[in-house]
Amino acid sequence: MTTVEASPVLVVTAHPDDADFSSAGSVARWVAEGRDVIYVLCTSGDKGSDDPNMTSERLAATREQEQRNAGAVLGLKDVIFLRYPDGGVEETPEFRGQIVKLIRTYRPGIVVTQDPFRWQHRDHRTVGRVALDACFPYARDIFHYPEHIKEGLPTHKVAEVYLIGSAEADTQIDVTDYVETRMKAARCHVSQIRDPEAFEERWRKRLEEAKEKNEGRITESFKKVVFRV
Ligand SMILES: [Zn+2]
Predict the structure, then answer these.
(1) Distance (Å) from CA 109 to ligand 1 centroid
(2) What is the torsion angle, in degrees rounded to the nearest 10, for the CA atoms of residue 171, residue 172, residue 173 and residue 175?
(3) What's the CA gap between 73 and 14, in Å, rounded?
(4) Where are the alpha helices (DSSP H) in the chain?
(5) Global confidence as pTM
(6) Fewer CB within 10 Å, N or C, the chain?
């Protein structure tokens, strides 16, 4: 049996850049530790522009490519796009079933998703709620989405969920050795960064401040939900 320490990590977020702007250091660390990390993007971020000459289709294609580029920097095993409309993610049995199927396919010990309990972008809240529900109880129970079982995918118990963007973060991951990889991954999201130089400068300043507060270490914070498996 795979232990939580060695098992794959499934990262389920609403938009390209959500994971890389918050958690790319942890992802780089997990990959360096030999874990498979898979990203699931529920939308392709097709509304994230204020350029009147841009189209939603072109923006989605651009942002998917940016996310694939960041995935290559981080060494992800897979990057999966579900292509729900940006701003239009709804909690449906079909959407939940897609996440359940991915959990039963990749069999992660850890699922990383967005905190549904904190007020933030509606897509973030919806994706977080659906991903948590998919872990427990839907992926675990044989009579939920039995078509997966018929296809040969057994049920799966996720051990832990790490929530991004939580106001009640209780878990820190030391990413001091991965800050350059994190910066490189974040900078792949070119369409979302108005001024790359200022972006990097701002980020480095924040890193230095965080270092001062934390005895030279840089961390990323999550709220951890532990399921009994
Ligand atoms: Zn987002």
Answers:
(1) 24
(2) 160
(3) 20
(4) 18-32, 56-74, 93-106, 122-133, 146-150, 179-186, 196-213
(5) 0.95
(6) N
CATH of domain 9-226: 3.40.50.10320
The tokens for 210 are 């965080």
Amino acid letter, residue 203: W
Round to whole Å and give the CA distance between 160 and 26: 15
Q: Please, which residues have CB less than 5 A from ligand 1, an ion?
A: 14-15, 18
Cα 44 to middle of ligand 1, angstroms: 10
> pLDDT tens across 128-167, in order?
999 999 999 999 999 999 999 999 999 999 999 999 999 9
Quote the Cα angle for 117-118-119, to 5°.
120
Q: How is the beta sheet containing 171-174 ordered, strand by strand? A: 78-84, 37-43, 9-13, 110-114, 160-164, 219-226, 171-174
CA of 158 to the centre of ligand 1 (A): 24
Strands 110-114 and 160-164: parallel
For the chain, what are the domain ranges? 9-226
Per-residue confidence band for 6, with pLDDT thresholds at 50, 70 and 90: confident
